[in-house]
Amino acid sequence: MIGRLNHVAIAVPDLQAAAAQYESTLGAKVGPPQDEPDHGVTVVFIELPNTKIELLFPLGEGSPIQNFLDKNPSGGIHHICYEVDDILAARAHLQSQGARVLGSGEPKIGAHGKPVLFLHPKDFTGCLIELEQI
Fold it and tell me: Which of the following is catalytic: 54, 83, 130, 132?
């Protein structure tokens, strides 16, 4: 059901410093900051030949990333995103297997302009999973 790895998301306490480190130290292609108010984050995508890294920084009050950074002040891996062909079919299959979809259970539009869902980390060995319809 899942396709290729779309991105690995890393919550960071300083977005500019993290982006600069990927660009100058690792020589990566770094995109511009992008506010995603529906998700409470500002993101920067790092383009790699085989996938992307998504740097996450809190945007606004009640950002879930702020909660993560409160527990992990240095930052860290927040979630992994996999591609799916049909997000509604994927949701139905996962729920039939007992997996919990976070939030309302309805897809939201993600940073790439495509529908996304998040799956409860307790159902996937402690890893928060994002599914993105391609």
Answer: 130
